[in-house]
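Notes from the 1:1 (GR / supervisor)

We went over the backlog. Supervisor wanted to see one worked example end to end before approving the batch request, so GR pasted a single chain during the call. The sequence is below; no edits were made to it. Supervisor asked that the structure be written out right there so they could see what the output format looks like.
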Amino acid sequence: MSSSGPSVSDREALRTFYKTSAHYHEALQEREAASFQSEYWRMVQTYLPAGSCVLDLGCGTGYSSARLMQAGFDVTAMDISLRFLSHAHDRPSGRLHFAVGDAIELPFANASFDGVSTFCMIEHVVDIEKAFSEIRRVLRPGGRFVNICPNYWSPVIPLKALIHLLHKGYGFVSFYESVPEALYGIPETLWGTLRKLCRATPDFVYRKPQLEGHMDVDCDCVYLPSPVDFKRYFQRAGFKIIRYGGEGSSLFKKGCATIAPSLVPSVYFVAEKPSQS
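Structure output shown during the call:
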């Protein structure tokens, strides 16, 4: 792990990977299912008014973007890879526009959108501070940033990996592949989150992506998201925090997410840009 971010060679390798990997493209297509993305659609519809102009940042194949357009939003769907958007013309036409670009250098004018939404995308960004700065720039006053992503500083993730290892013989590729790694990961993530909570500023931590050999869905992850990072950054930028955790598929999980939002395995986050005075 590193706080300085991926090297230049890692950044270029990651760009090339997204632009050329057929395997990764196939994995994105397999995620085109309401069962996988419905929580994201619900979050956007809950926190952004119908008819809003929304940037679906890191849209992948554009499946989520098409569904948001059908829900009444004016959607710009952007991803770094033209390959992922190769079937964009097959999506329903209407208030849906596609663009190729990088999250750390958005090709849009200042104050272009009422909302910027991201789903399982932030962890793939090579410079999260620049990406957040760009999100701030393209949001209109009063606009909102809506995000769902994994919390890689949650001790629940290495705990789940440990259970998998003990019962099924395998853990999570590129994160906790052995019992010692999972056992170490539980106190490491807990302590890391507590340290973040004690800081007044965000502490963005990165890892080297795994782009060769046997891979799972997040082997290409470079940034290790924490809801604490999000809260610290956007509060310092003057944003109002609208949502910080409190999500879950069951009453028990919702309770845990409400009591300890910094430790649950998923980040549900909404922040609102200050309105003009």
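Supervisor's comment: The mean pLDDT is 87.
Batch request approved.
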